[in-house]
Amino acid sequence: MTSTETPLNSPAAAADRRRWFALAIVMTAAFMDLVDVTIVNIAIPSIRRDAGASWGQIQWITAGYALAFAAGLITGGRLGDIHGRKRLFLIGIGGFTLASALCGFAANPEMLVASRILQGGMAAMMVPQVLSIVHATFPAHERGKVFGLFGAIVGLGAVSGPLLGALLTEWNLFGLEWRPIFLINLPVGVAGLILGRRFITESKAPRALKLDLVGVALVTLGLLMLLYPLTRGRELGWPLWGHVSMAGALVVFAALVAYEKRKTARDGSPLVELSLFKVKSFAAGIAVQTVFGVALGIFFLVWTLYMQMGLGWSALRAGLTGVPFSIAVSAAAGMSVQLLVPRFGRKVLQAGALLMALGVLLYIWESDRYGMAIASWQMALPLVVMGAGMGFIVAPLTDAVLSEVPREHSGSASGLINTVQQMGNALGLGLVSVVFFGGIGDRLTRAQVGPAFAHAFQHALGWVAVVLAVIFLLMFALPKRPAQHVEGAGAADTLGEKEPVLVP
Hints:
Layout: H1 11-51, H2 55-83, H3 85-104, H4 109-137, H5 140-171, H6 180-183, H7 185-199, H8 213-236, H9 240-267, H10 280-310, H11 315-321, H12 323-344, H13 346-370, H14 376-402, H15 410-435, H16 446-474
Helix pairs in contact: 1-2, 1-4, 1-5, 1-7, 1-10, 2-3, 2-4, 2-8, 2-15, 3-4, 3-7, 5-11, 5-12, 8-9, 8-15, 10-14, 10-15, 10-16, 12-13, 12-14, 13-14, 13-16
């Protein structure tokens, strides 16, 4: 054995094994969260049929998770910096597992909604620690390989979530209908909790920012005042209090801005670093992320309802129909970062928005032309076009938004980017009441259900196309080419000092 070799039973070799075990644990937790976001949509018809949930409750089963996740992301990252990333990760994965059990054993729709909100809050404790633990565990020269693995996990989660949800729903294990989509998290979560305690090394930030709980409360209150009337308004006949609540949300957001300015002057640890919005490309990028989240929130929910409730397809057929979309997203994402963006810059993202809009319009045309007789293979072309467009956007967007942000603020900016995308997603899910359910009558015969859902799907996709056109225009404010100081991981090297970088 040469002097450069490490004995298999040496302390160095044991430490090396420990960090790879730690990586596998945190990556599994990230995968669990990603799958849980996508797995629920495919089971919605089963949840509605078995649990008797109203359309408003169905929206909150999805939007409640996104809202709680968004509201807690930055605070979750700061808690990890202050009290230890390992500790917060274990609290998060333990709470996520408990919330999954509550979802799986929910006695009624109200309990399911509350459990999903708890699950989103626990994910906000768990997910920000993942890349922070990676940063603390692996040296800089190895992080590129690790972040590449993380990207593969993101792609795998996007592909496997709908399929796994479809299989678990179709199999109807032990007569539990949709419940196994949540219960499958239990063995994974318990294993992650036990192994995480043993193999993850504790770390803290040398100088962590303070918590801004008032800021979190104002953000959450403002979003609730906006989203609750949107989701319940149609069912209740759009009462006056709903309009007052939505108008009041603007007042709450104005109060948030005023409070954040005072918080910045007092101790320099606001929830939202308002000075970042002086950077034109960042302000535009935040708008793009928010509006993009709205588009995705609308599309994925109405798409599932169209295939299963409108066309009467099984969960498995709907899940398999989405495979070309997921593959196109993964392929285009890799191509955009490695080949296209270095050569064409911002034009790649704008081409992605136009491609997605083209795919949406093609989908509307096919749905109208083929009606109830449309087949899965006929949906493949618009889905591939949409998936390619989405891949051109999601992979390079974070770097484009961060490219002109000062390095000392890149961590905070990254946390904010992911927060607003989740908030946009929650808002999009709330808007489904207006753009989709608003076009479906309350009393439909069985023969009327399919055409009504198809028409509502086409109407909702028209709004998605409009949103994508807005995104295309907003992208003109992004830099033509990302600055050289931000590399592929989205300024990941700053993770230890500020908020963790989260990959959408």
